[in-house]
Amino acid sequence: MTQVFKFGGASVQDAAAIRRVGELLARFRARPLIVVVSAMGKTTNALEALLAAAREGEAADYQERLETLRREHLTTVEALFGDRAGPVKKRVESLLTELDQRHRRHARRERPFHYDQTVCFGELLSTTIISAWLDEIGMATEWQDARDLVVTDDCYQAANVDWQATAERVRAMASDNDRIHITQGFIGGTVEGTSTTLGREGSDFSAAILAHCLDAEEVTIWKDVPGIFNADPRRVDNAVQLEQISYDEAVELAWHGAKVIHPKTLGPLQQKSIPLTVRSFEDLEAPPSTIGQDTRFDTQTPSLILREAQTLLEIRTRDFTFMDEARQHDILGRLVEAGLHAGLIDAGAMRLSLSLDGHPERLEPLVASLCEDYAVERCDDLTLLNVRHADDALLAALSAGRDSLAERRNADTAQRLFPGSQCRGTWHIPR
Ligand code: ADP
Ligand code: ASP
Ligand code: MG
Predict the structure, then answer these.
(1) Superfamily of domain 303-422
(2) Distance from Cα 169 to the centre of ligand 1, integer Å
(3) Which of 106, 192, 316, 368 is the most exposed place for a label (fewest CB within 10 A)?
(4) What GO cellular component term, any one, is given (predicted)?
(5) What ranges do the domains of the chain cover?
């Protein structure tokens, strides 16, 4: 049965990392094997900055950023292939030329379209290099263009998958079973063949789409952490690994902002009962975390998710009438139109409070539109603390010395919004 592997940016960030991916893949002989790869390191951020430079910045800034991308990718190619680098360098150069040409062609088009035509190159570059490297070390690979596999609508930057068309194309691809199929995460294409993207960090979702369409046996996501923890181990000094998690619990963690898995990933897998394993690419012996159907393992271990750079909007009617369902519907409708997600929604008789990711391009027009019809109070640079399975004592301990500006609680999740300045640095979960 088919296995799907996904390698994120950190696992392919430079020549040493790509070599390690090659060594890792050499240990897995089972076929069919589909390998989904993200852009190298922070390339997607660099492409976003390139786009901003192209649209709003100086031409010199754009050229410098393009040159940096070129240099970084070519350095990796040279480090991998040495004096045999010529053909791969040529392919990388030609992708960068195509990127540059697209910029010029699309500079006056609306931003989301331009974004997708630009940012898709991160994954095209990484998979070109990695596929060539695997061939170089004697592994038979087939490079697949995800824009021909994952069929989407034209909702740029957050494209929706056409499942039926995608399944047909993906099944046709997988008929060649001996080779490792290497494809890009995060990107897709419309039926007309225009590039689209699935949303930031969307490569996990790409792996799930392919696994769903192929009725895969398992999806493995290779990370710089051994698995899923009850908090980001970079922020919480006593985070513990959760080795078995149900889909439902994992969806809750991802939905509340645990950065380890893209929230859309679990649905397509849960529908087909395909387990998802998160493993360390640095330590193959480390016990992984597995997400599956079985809820027996869901402990009541509290999990912490910190969501930073939040903006709180407190919205009231101007005439002191109720914040009734019709008004909530109006406000949330505007939120959907702006493409923003509220990490916390809390309604009172006269007020609706929303905690939103501080995404200036989307937030500012939303705030301007709300201010036309409502009284809006705003507070920036906040941190939203989400705690799963918290008891009162834990919540009180986590809140000590912090001013809660908004809160919400249901049976299994408590949320509190604090000033960001009170939340920086390392956290500790009191026992
Ligand atoms: P990728 O290389 O796949 O893009 P990411 O950097 O997006 O990987 O995700 C891995 C990082 O996620 C880890 O380095 C870790 O700091 C962070 N992280 C956040 N929350 C968690 C969590 N609950 N469990 C494990 N890692 C987490
Ligand atoms: N490269 C894309 C990003 O950084 C997709 C991904 O890595 O999942 O958002
Ligand atoms: Mg990532």
Answers:
(1) VC0802-like (3.30.2130.10)
(2) 31
(3) 192
(4) cytosol
(5) 3-223, 303-422
